[in-house]
Amino acid sequence: MTWPRPAGPLTLRPPTDDDIDQALTWRYHPEVTKWLIRTEVDPDAFRKAWLDARDDPNDSSAVAELDGVIVGTGALEVQDGLGQTHGDEWRATEGLLGYLIDPRFAGNGYATAIARALLELSFTELGLRRVTAGCFADNLASWRVMERLGMRREQHGVKDSWHAEFGWVDGFTYGILADEWLSGVARRA
Known about the structure:
Blueprint: E1 5-7, E2 10-13, H1 17-27, H2 30-33, H3 43-53, E3 62-66, E4 69-79, E5 94-101, H4 110-125, E6 130-136, H5 140-148, E7 152-163, E8 167-177, H6 178-182
Parallel strand pairs: 5-6
Antiparallel strand pairs: 1-2, 2-3, 3-4, 4-5, 6-8, 7-8
């Protein structure tokens, strides 16, 4: 993979220890945690997972930097597809996309820029066949990002996600295929 890589006005790159310190300053903000399944995460475990991801060929987690400030994070986890287990056509063919934005920088299109750059990486450099992403149904900003990029809502899970503060809540799953993205069918707003 080529790092760093542009994401609109942002630069995506693997995290450093200092970047994680910056991200932890807003990771536990109520405007962030209310949209996460795991609202409590041990800072040391968070740091270790992010730094370990740099060496994992199936993890393209990155920080999003703007003028030296970490304004968000993006994650792209490569997974095996579902299906018959003979042959290798199903191996490492799908991606799971995620993103977080520092609430001070919300509303500037940064989540869209991060997601677009990771979708582009998925389909042009990693050669993935399909990418999915999920969010709570009430997270209007997140599902709008996915729809803006041409991802289709494939599932509305009724009370399928446990949230420590809100209990059982509805979730959405979105997906997009490589041929949709590469043909330009997907909107690139």
